[in-house]
Structures are given as structure tokens and as C-alpha cells.
Amino acid sequence: MLKLDVDLQREKKGREDMAILVAGGAGYIGSHVCKMLKERGYEVIILDNLSHGYRSFAKYGEFILGDIADATLLDLIFTHYKVDAVMHFCAYIEVGESVKDPNKYYINNVSNTITLLNAMLKHNIKYFVFSSTAAVYGMPERIPIKEDDPKAPINPYGRSKYMVEQILEDYDSAYALKSIRFRYFNAAGADESLEIGEAHEPETHLIPLILDAACKVRESVKIFGTDYKTKDGTCIRDFVHVNDLADAHIKGLEYLMSENKTDYFNLGSGSGYSVREVIEKAKEITKVDFRVEETGRRPGDPAYLIADNEKARKILNWEPKYDLDGIIATAWNWHRKLRKEFCNE
Q1: Which residue, 148, 182, 197, 208, could crosslink 334 as a Cys pair with Cβ 3.0–4.6 Å?
Q2: Which element (helix H / strand E) includes 19?
Q3: Are 228 and 235 a contacting pair, CB within 8 Å?
Q4: Which residues are catalytic?
């Protein structure tokens, strides 16, 4: 049975600041957004079922244990709190798993999101910030990728995100529910306070996998494919710091509420680094010469994924602050804390 960590019987609190419901606020990106929202004076309500998030990360607002699939719970929350906007960070994100179990992805990422949107409409909440993905582009036709380039996702994960993007267009036209969709490239790094960071189980992202090898948590890190038509034969990827993502979300929220306009933005650094370059930079920063294995390509991996982020820079006045050195350095500081039993100074 789902429970609330707050007393739903008490009267609504008067609020000077806007209240934001952050669905998935105990996860990696969601927790960083919650921290920044709180620092900038927003009232934060965190809804998370803790299937992939951590209770210890949900400390930047009032925490509610529950799921966006629960329409009754959503009704209670929206009745109790005067929510001004909703941010969504509770999708499943593993591409390989989505291919093996698409039903899981379409139910959680699409159907459950519709439940949330309908609850918002019922309570006249008209602002929604959605975490989408660069996977909506599929195999890109050009680099860097612009927001209006063709959308051709090649796996259920990407398709589920693009379905929601299309639903949001229809909900705007029909119900005037305004949304911002952020298409992430490769989120990485950690908050410099080291209170929160990346802690996926199992881990599939490149930088934490590299740092696991540096910590001797795993025997090696693998390079999937060394025969791409790139400068060193390995894939080129665009990495963006999680706090730069958080900053974009708040700027997007403020744009959404001031302009009352649905829109979509790429969130990437605009720079590309090869897998081999990331590994070498990690060796330099960690001062550990860990083992690297070269193996064959994974199906569906494009040679290049780099964002054109000019639209977010121009419209949202967003400027990424962290370069690759800063991303890996903050990730390494966090990783040593996370894996302290392995990472001895």
C-alpha cells in the first residue's frame, strides 16, 4: 500500500513561492534539479516510488512515496498542495532492456505519463517539464543535431519518449497544457557538495563504468567498436554536466510560465569526445592506469551524437559551465565516496 510522508489531512500551507511537483525527484537528474530548485527559492514536492531512486537523495523537499500510475494518490497530492508546475524524471531509460521488454517501457513511460497529465488537467495545472532524450533522433542525418531534424527512434525507449512528445503537442492543442521537452545527450558528473550523484544499479553509462574500473570495482572498461569513421575509430559523444541540466530545467520552467508557450530543446555541451578520449582523460584525472578491453560494435550505436544547443542558449539564456575535465572530476570525487570500500586514497 502506498503511503505519504506528509499529513494529507492538514490544511494547505500558504506559499509565497511557487510549488513544483518533481516526479522522480529521488533519482539522479531529478535530485539535482530538486536541490537547485530549493536553492533558488521554490517549494519542492518530491514524488518517487524508489524503484530506481534513493530515499537519501529526496532531501530537498517534502517526500511522497508513490507512483505516477496511482491516479488516486495524484488526486490527493493535487488537492492538498497548490502545485504550479510538474517536472517528470521517472521514465525507464535502459535501451537494451526496452528491446527485451517493450511492454514495461510503454506502460511506465507512456501510459503512466498520461495518467499524470490527466490528473494535472483535472486540477487545472497547465505547466509540465518533460525529460526526453536524444534517442528520439535515432541514427542522425547530420551532426550537430538540431531540434527540427527528423525523429526516427530505433528502439522502444526512444519511441516511448517520442510518443510522449507527440502527446504533449496534442494536449497543448486540445487542453492548453503547456510543456517544455528537453532532449538530453549524455548526462554525467555530480553535484560538487557530494551529497548526491550518479548511482544506477546496474550501471550502464560510460563515465561511471570507467570510474568503476579505476576503483577496481570491475576488472576493465570495454570499448564497443574501434572501426567507426571517427578520428580514433571509437564513437563520439556529447557529455553534459548534471548541474548544467538542472540549470536548464529551471530556466525552461521560468520560460514556460512567463511565455505560456510549448517548446523543445536539445541539452548537450555542443562538443564531442571519443570514447577513447574520455577514457584517457579519466586516467589523467584519477591517476589510475586501469585495463581497457576492445570489443565489437553494439547494434544501433551511431558514430556521432553531438547536440546543436544554440536554441537553448538563445531562448533560455542557458550556458553550460562544465567542460569534460569538470564533468569527470566531479564524477570521480562522487565515485570515490560511493565506492569508498574500493577507492582508497
Answers
A1: 197
A2: strand 19-23
A3: yes
A4: 157
The CA-based angle 305-188-308, given to 5 degrees, is 35
Report pLDDT digits (tens) over 171-203. Answer: 999 999 999 999 999 999 999 999 999 988 878
pTM of the model: 0.92
User: Span 206-237+270-338: which CATH code?
Assistant: 3.90.25.10
Topology of domain 19-189+241-267, CATH: Rossmann fold (3.40.50)
- 236 three-state secondary structure: strand
Distance, CA of 318 to CA of 230 (rounded, Å): 29
278 Cβ contact list (under 8 Å, min separation 6): 206, 207, 210, 237, 239, 324, 328
Burial category of 28 from C-beta neighbours within 10 Å (exposed 0-12, middle 13-18, buried 19 and up): buried
Contact 197, 190 (CB under 8 A): yes
Helix (H, G, I), strand (E, B) or coil at 107: helix
